[in-house]
């Protein structure tokens, strides 16, 4: 074939929109000499995955979509690190900043967007950046090594992903948002509130309803000032307040521009032979900021350029998925109810899920899913197709077995239409995936990705692709579906514990490295869990890794809504003295404690202590920590008992205080609560405790697995004992067995149900040898514990770096 007839196609912008259109053109056999000019010094990469690079679960190499060789193989001339400055429509050439001129027959502008930088004083200071490209990402990775405090302005998708990434990099991060709700363009207040709570648990701080008016600092940023006069310290500021289409070239050349480069339904601009695609263009008044529309646009444009007849582009219905591990959020179409909507909602506080579907004139027009997003693909497709609500759809999505949970419904391959889009980003249908499995023999998600493109962009459709693989292959589909303790691994709790034992692993880093975690730093789910398993297995040699603990445990205090902390000293068995009360009163007055509260666990909570005052408060109280923040023994609640009560048959106060002193400070898989009662009247409510003890005439009865929280469970009667010694022995063995077999964060109420009471009885009651060994192991672990505040107060460096960092760090 002669080259003379080939048309010259110049693509400006080496991003996803430009290159995915080129891929389509190549698929269609288009006859072009293609030149791509890109400003960034990289081949086309998956911009979406920058969030994962920042979070640490992917490297820059992982996110390259088309490597250098791809351009070569497809005979594409590539100029990287070159910025196009204008298009000359008369001479039909494109010119660039380095003097390059390239003649064209057709030109495609695919220049994307740039972050919007708030026009406030100081926004040009060093350390103020957007989050758009590899350069920004690298700058954040560098900043995290040198600085501690980051502020992210903007509580949308991008801002939250940036914030999570920076938290994973060890920074203290505050998201500042103008509105009261996060992601208010995609979520209602309910979902937004659930999201905020989840992200706070993952370590992100929030300042909502705050308008930034100034960025402080000399050359480098030192903080933000808000309209209400408040200030926030920050040595890195990421602006994620929105994007603006890159329209400079079109403007400079005289092509019609509004918010974006104006295009018609075939992506043609106001100039002949000049097209625009992706985030830089404006179609029917809409500019998009997600990849699914640009893929749809690219398909239309590729067909048009190749002379293949096809449908015009009529706009896209966008959906959103937040890419933060452990947070599943989906939103598509309309989400704020108006008078004309019929609304179906279901909220489940136990599973932390929320579902909302909006219906107008019986047509499904929008949805929000939080926590469980397994219906996202089908809802997205129904909204796109303007599907009418039916009883069958209702049952399938809302579930009829358990009100509103959708629980129990199975994925049905047959019910899914062939043309249903599974991967919204890359427009891959169910049929394309099934064909890839049945006709081409693919058996894993990665193979499906390579073959069809599904899961290649945001990864949100991976669960559905797995379900299709499972349905088509049955038992033939193995590994990819296996659930690990978190997205970093496919290993479950027992496998990890077995590996730690077998290989003698000693640190979280080592576990993650040796067991091939996809993220070598782990995530907020696996790190504290592995840290717990390591300490439980090697109580004597284990080295504490403070950074692997949840923030409350790291600080030995509960952080409150307003950023202050609480102090809960021990009151063994709920008993105190006038001297201790006086000390508490004096310290509360001196340090301006906001509220002194009697807790549900029978002690006093000093609420509203400033972080920098925490060490002095503890020093002056000179009382042991009550561990009100820890996955550890909280309190042993007691009734008055035989010392004073006329019904009492056992000394519950004495036994409660003894047990609390004996077993305090030890780490458990989850928080652990106890109660001791002097008689079966049970005034201290044993039935809702992890271990509840009830006195009777001849001794004690032990209950296990109670819970008074959101998923209440009455404790099971475990056994009766005659003596105090037996009671202490069995409690110790029970606790150690739970420590050794519980999954991290699993309360005894779930543990008892998982293992079965009979199994626990068999180990502890029927097998004296095992019971004795369990007691020996808990005794050994108990010898290692020490009061956390004593430790902080005795370690000046720790004290200052953790709590009083406004003052200089004193190193010895
Ligand atoms: C961190 C992050 C996470 C995201 N997550 C998601 C997500 O989960 N789901 C989703 O759908 N979308 C997501 N997005 C948005 C998505 O990345 C964009 O919609 C998509 O990249 C737009 O593609 P584009 O090709 O139009 O623009 P771009 O990807 O921006 O590509 C344009 C390219 O053109 C270059 N260029 C600009 N001007 C010139 C010039 N004058 N000369 C030469 N080259 C030029 C730019 O340097 C850039 O490389 C995310 C974006 C970011 C930054
Ligand atoms: C970050 C989240 C939480 C914090 C900071 C917190 C804090 C506390 C504190 C300080 C106490 C007083 C107990 C004491 O004296 O030690 C307490 C009691 C209690 N909490 Fe929580 N809690 C949290 C989450 C929960 C959850 C999720 C549940 C339910 C599953 C729960 C159920 C209870 C119950 C039932 C009590 C009363 C205990 C008793 O009477 O002995 N808490 N909580
Ligand atoms: S449980 Fe029994 S002993 Fe304890 S206070 Fe109540 S009545 Fe008295």
Question: What does this entry look like structurally?
Answer:
The protein is α/β, with parallel strands linked by helices and 812 residues long. It is 33% helix and 20% strand. The strands form 10 sheets. It has a 5-stranded parallel sheet with strand order 3-2-1-7-19, covered by helices on one side. A hairpin with a 4-residue loop joins strand 5 (93-96) and strand 6 (101-103). Helix 11 packs across helix 13 and helix 21 (724-741) packs across helix 24 (768-784). The chain starts with 6 loop residues before the first strand and ends in a 9-residue tail after the last helix. Mean pLDDT is 90; it is low at 401-409 and 806-812.
Ligand kinds:
flavin-adenine dinucleotide, protoporphyrin IX containing FE, iron/sulfur cluster
SS field, number of helical segments? 26
Largest beta sheet: strand ordering: 3-2-1-7-19
The major β-sheet equals: 5 strands, parallel
Oligomer: single chain
How many DSSP E strands? 36
The fraction of residues assigned to DSSP E strands is: 15-25%
* Dominant shape: elongated
Mean pLDDT score, rounded?
A: 90
What value does the Rg take, in angstroms?
31 Å
Structural class estimated from helices and strands: alpha/beta
Outline the low-pLDDT stretches: 401-409, 806-812
Helix content: 25-40%
* End-to-end CA span: 77 Å
């Amino acid at each position: 074939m002669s080259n003379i007839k080939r048309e010259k196609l110049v693509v400006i912008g080496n991003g996803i929109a430009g290159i995915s259109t080129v891929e389509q053109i190549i698929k269609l056999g288009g006859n072009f000499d293609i030149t791509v000019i890109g400003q960034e010094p990289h081949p086309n990469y998956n911009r979406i995955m920058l969030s994962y690079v920042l979070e640490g679960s992917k490297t820059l190499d992982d996110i390259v979509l088309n490597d250098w060789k791809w351009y070569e193989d497809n005979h594409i001339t590539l100029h990287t690190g070159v910025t196009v400055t204008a298009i000359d429509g008369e001479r039909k050439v494109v010119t660039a900043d380095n003097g390059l001129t390239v003649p064209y027959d057709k030109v495609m502008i695919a220049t994307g967007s740039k972050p919007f930088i708030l026009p406030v004083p100081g926004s040009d200071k060093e350390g103020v950046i957007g989050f758009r490209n590899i350069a920004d990402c690298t700058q954040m990775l560098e900043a995290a090594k040198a600085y501690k405090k980051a502020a992210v302005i903007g509580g949308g998708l991008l801002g939250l992903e940036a914030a999570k990434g920076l938290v994973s990099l060890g920074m203290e991060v505050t998201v500042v948002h103008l509105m009261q709700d996060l992601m208010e363009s995609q979520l209602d207040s309910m979902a937004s509130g659930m999201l905020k709570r989840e992200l706070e648990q993952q370590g992100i701080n929030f300042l909502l309803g705050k308008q930034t008016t100034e960025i402080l600092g000399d050359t480098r940023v030192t903080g933000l000032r808000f309209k209400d006069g408040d200030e926030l310290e920050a040595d890195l500021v990421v602006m994620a307040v929105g994007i603006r289409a890159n329209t400079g070239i079109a403007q400079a050349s005289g092509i019609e521009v509004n918010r974006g480069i104006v295009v018609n339904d075939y992506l043609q601009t106001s100039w002949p032979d000049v097209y625009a695609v992706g985030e830089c263009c404006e179609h029917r008044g809409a500019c998009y900021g997600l990849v699914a529309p640009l893929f749809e646009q690219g398909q239309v444009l590729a067909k048009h350029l190749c002379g293949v007849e096809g449908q015009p582009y009529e706009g896209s219905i966008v959906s959103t998925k937040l890419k933060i591990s452990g947070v599943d959020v989906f939103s598509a179409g309309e989400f704020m109810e108006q008078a004309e909507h019929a609304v179906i909602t279901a909220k489940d506080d136990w599973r932390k899920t929320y579902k909302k579907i909006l219906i107008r004139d019986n047509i499904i027009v929008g949805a929000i899913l939080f926590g469980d997003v397994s219906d996202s693909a089908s809802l997205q497709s129904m909204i796109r197709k303007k599907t009418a609500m039916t009883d069958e759809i209702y049952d399938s999505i809302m579930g009829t077995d358990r009100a509103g949970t959708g629980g129990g419904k199975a994925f049905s391959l047959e019910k899914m239409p062939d043309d249903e889009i599974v991967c919204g980003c890359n427009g891959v249908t169910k049929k394309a995936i099934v064909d890839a499995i049945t006709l081409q023999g693919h058996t894993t998600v990665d193979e499906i990705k390579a073959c069809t493109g599904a899961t290649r962009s945001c990864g949100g459709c991976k669960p559905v692709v797995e379900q299709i693989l499972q349905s088509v292959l049955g038992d033939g589909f193995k590994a990819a579906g296996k659930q690990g303790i978190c997205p970093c691994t496919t290993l479950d709790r027992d496998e990890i514990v077995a590996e730690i034992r077998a290989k003698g692993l000693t640190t979280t880093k080592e576990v993650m490295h040796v067991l091939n975690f996809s993220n070598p730093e782990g995530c907020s789910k696996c790190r504290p869990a592995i840290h717990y398993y390591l300490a439980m297995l090697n109580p004597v040699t284990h080295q504490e890794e403070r950074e692997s603990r949840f923030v409350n445990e790291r600080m030995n205090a509960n952080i409150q809504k307003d950023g202050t902390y609480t102090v809960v000293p021990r009151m063994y068995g709920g008993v105190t003295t006038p001297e201790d009360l006086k000390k508490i009163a004096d310290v509360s007055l001196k340090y301006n404690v906001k509220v002194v509260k009697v807790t549900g666990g029978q002690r006093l909570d000093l609420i509203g202590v400033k972080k920098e005052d925490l060490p002095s408060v503890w020093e002056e109280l000179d009382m042991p920590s009550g561990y009100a923040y820890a996955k550890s023994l909280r309190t042993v609640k007691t009734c008055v008992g035989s010392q004073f009560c006329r019904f009492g048959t056992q000394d519950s106060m004495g036994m409660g205080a003894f047990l609390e002193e004996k077993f305090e400070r030890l780490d458990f898989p989850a928080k652990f609560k106890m109660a001791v009662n002097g008689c079966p009247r049970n005034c201290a409510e044993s039935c809702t405790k992890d271990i509840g003890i009830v006195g009777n005439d001849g001794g004690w009865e032990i209950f296990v697995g109670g819970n008074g929280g959101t998923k209440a469970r009455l404790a099971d009667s475990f056994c009766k004992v005659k003596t105090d010694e037996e009671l202490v022995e069995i409690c110790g063995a029970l606790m150690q067995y739970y420590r050794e077999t519980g999954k991290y964060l699993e309360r005894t109420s779930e543990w008892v149900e998982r293992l079965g009471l009979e199994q626990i009885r068999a180990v502890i009651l029927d097998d004296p040898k095992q019971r004795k060994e369990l007691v020996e192991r808990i005794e050994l672990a108990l010898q290692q514990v020490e009061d956390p505040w004593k430790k902080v107060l005795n370690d000046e460096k720790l004290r200052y770096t953790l709590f009083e960092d406004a003052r200089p760090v004193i190193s010895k």
